[in-house]
TrEMBL record:
Organism domain of life: Bacteria
Name of the featured protein: DUF1491 family protein
InterPro entries recorded: DUF1491 (IPR009964)
Amino acid sequence: MEEARLKTGIWVKAMLRQAGQKGNPGMVLHHGDDDAGGVLIVLLGRAGHMSVLAQTRTHDGRRAWFRATGEAAVDQAGVDAYVTRQMERDPDLWVLEFETPDLMPPFEAKMI
């Protein structure tokens, strides 16, 4: 069964708050479409290690995430290149960044 879909702007605010309450500060790097924009998550770990998560949907319509930059950590240049390519394709995209030492999402997230 497909989950109810929140407007992206509301979802972003909730995830920033949830992560902040867990001690993982986050910020909006790019403000996308408030109603239905896609979301990229930049995870900033220790020693400059980074990863980008991209949003997708499972077969039953639930929100899920995958490591868009691959399983291995990348550097700032790798993140910037990926985010730039995606924003050229979709200017309504949101880009959020969270500090997380283990490169895991600091909010409830199904990883695939």
